[in-house]
Amino acid sequence: MNDRRLKKNPLPPPSKAVKTPGALFIVSAPSGAGKSTLCRSALDHFSDLFYSISYTTRAPRSQEQNGVDYHFIAKADFEAGIHRDRWAEWAEVHGNYYGTSKKFLDDALLSGRDVLIDIDIQGTRQILERYPNAVTIFIMPPSLDILKERLEARRTDSAEIVAVRLKNAEKEMAHKEIYRHLIINDRLSDAIADLIAIIEGYRSD
Description:
It contains 7 helices and 9 strands. The strands form 2 sheets. A 5-stranded parallel β-sheet has the order 2-7-1-8-9, sandwiched between helices. It has a 4-stranded mixed β-sheet with strand order 4-3-6-5. The chain starts with 23 loop residues before the first strand and ends with a helix. It has helices spanning 35-45, 75-83, 102-110, 121-130, 144-154, 159-173, 188-203, and strands spanning 24-28, 50-51, 55-56, 71-72, 87-93, 96-101, 115-118, 135-140, 181-184. Helix 1 crosses helix 7 (188-203) and helix 5 runs antiparallel to helix 6. Helix content is 40%, strand content 19%. A hairpin with a 2-residue loop joins strand 5 (87-93) and strand 6 (96-101). By secondary structure, the protein is an alpha/beta fold. It has a domain at 24-51 and 113-203: P-loop containing nucleotide triphosphate hydrolases (Rossmann fold, 3-Layer(aba) Sandwich), CATH 3.40.50.300.
């Protein structure tokens, strides 16, 4: 495997940091970089690796299942959770809330279970405030041109949406230095092997 590790996260552990016997793996990537496929491959490889399912207030899409793809809840319930400090991280996107259960992470990690979570850069920053030892992994496309080709090949978005996704990808990639590990998804099998090797390295400590 190529050595694609980056420097340690420079953020100092804040006072509310939680130390856990389990390992938390955070995976982030621009849209179209292959994050979902890589995460599924890791979960298939490590049968005892927990996956943190996000909560959202948006309506389920076709074929999406509650408790599998997302936990779908009412907006009022999510906002009540904000006031009760229920979320380890949360954000409002296009009028809908998305968040990660603090209780789920605490219960799993404090019991010694390892957890995989895929979130964006904003969510990663929030999670690191509570779990500064989390293993952060950023998935990169080989180039923006290749990412454009992949997005267009999906045939799910208009040219305008593809342009927005590319612009967002460029912004996200500019913050990759906050991640401890970098994987370039050029060849999928190699990227899967890289992700599995990174996770395995921390789980064997």
